[in-house]
Amino acid sequence: SQMPVEAPRTQAFLLNKEWCEETFRAALLPLADDLPLSYSRRTTVEYRRCLTTSLFFKFFTTVNTNVSSVVVNPSDVSASVATHPRIPQRGEQHFAWDERPGATGKPFMHLAGIQHATGEALFVDDTPKQARELRAHYVLATRTHAKILKIDATKALAHSGVVTFLSAKDVPGKLEIGVIAMDEELFAQDEVIYHGQPLGIVVAESHEVAREAAGLVEVEYGPDLPALLTIEDALAADSYIGEKRTLKRGNAEEAIKNAPFKVEGTIHIGGQYHNFIETHACICYPGENDEFTLISANQGNSKVQACVASVLSIPQHKIVSKIRRVGGSFGGKETRCLPLACASALASFHTRRPVRMTL
């Protein structure tokens, strides 16, 4: 969450204490209790805990420098400086010019390079807010593998500023989306198959209200079902995505057997987080006669158009999909743009108002 939080245990601990380095160090324990950090795909718990401590240290040195009589260690003075002067930098890069015809080997500038470097490039969420625009926020599964017994949005709908809650039962067309195979549910209907799977969206007058109300949706699950958490688990369970495919050329077994050198081993590679130039975002505008226009961060407008039309059960020619910029996603928006675009369009379909979603 990006919302500011209080640290009541730390406040109570510091009350009437002598303001000194020993107090600062002792206060780090209640500070850790005030801010229990959980796993995040973006950053590690260790990094965020170190960041919390560093910000507290910055506050400590700033008070010492400007208010208290505590002498600040010269090596720590820089921590209390609000902003550090930044000297404008200038650099040049020289490339060899390939004299052969064509563009290959030529150091041509990216067509939008100057706009990207100066910050003038416009992305999806730079689009000005429209009249009557709504914001949507996901309700995500908190279990890894379990049956969904009940989803109760009563408390969320009673929250001031909330317009509606949408789940699988509100999809007028096909619930399944995808590119190669239409096998991914827009919202989990009967069973959760991974932690964080979308169960629905809360649509509200502001992003803050939508996010807060999403936390009020109550989900009742059945008992935990077996979960495959590693590649080894999946292999042992003979669990594959789609049909098994084999690429074969020649006799591999014989070639390995007769090879002069053999190297064996196992390598484990952790998950990768795509460092997007822009985050996942989509805005959907309703028009006349079930026409919808979407501006989304994607890598395939035709895929967005097809999936949105399928979910809403309307012809594809009534869906206009636009994109501000292409590239810079490293494959992360090849298919992951579809859930956000379809959810935004579903909310716009039901409310007949512009709807924006930003992750």
Q: Care to describe what's here?
A:
The N and C termini lie close together (12 Å). Helix 1 packs antiparallel against helix 2 (21-34) and helix 2 runs antiparallel to helix 3 (45-66). The relative contact order is 0.13. With 359 residues, the chain is an alpha+beta fold. The protein has ten helices and twelve strands.
Key traits:
359 residues, alpha+beta, seven-stranded mixed β-sheet, 10 helices, 12 strands
Task: Describe, in short, the structure shown.
The chain has ten helices and twelve strands. With 359 residues, it is an alpha+beta fold. The longest helix is centred in the first third of the chain and has 22 residues.
Helicity, as a percent range: 25-40%
Tally of individual helices: 10
Strand order of the largest sheet: 3-7-1-12-9-10-11
Rounded mean pLDDT score? 90
Structure class: alpha+beta
Biggest sheet overview: 7 strands, mixed
What's the alpha carbon Rg, rounded to whole Å? 26 Å
How widely separated are the two ends? 12 Å
Strand content: 15-25%
Q: Could you state the order of secondary-structure elements as H and E? A: HHHHEEHEEEEEHEHHEEHEHE
Any chance you could write out the topology, listing elements then pairs?
Blueprint: H1 8-14, H2 21-34, H3 45-66, H4 113-118, E1 134-140, E2 146-152, H5 154-157, E3 162-167, E4 176-177, E5 184-185, E6 191-192, E7 198-204, H6 207-214, E8 218-224, H7 231-236, H8 252-257, E9 281-286, E10 292-296, H9 301-312, E11 319-322, H10 337-351, E12 355-358
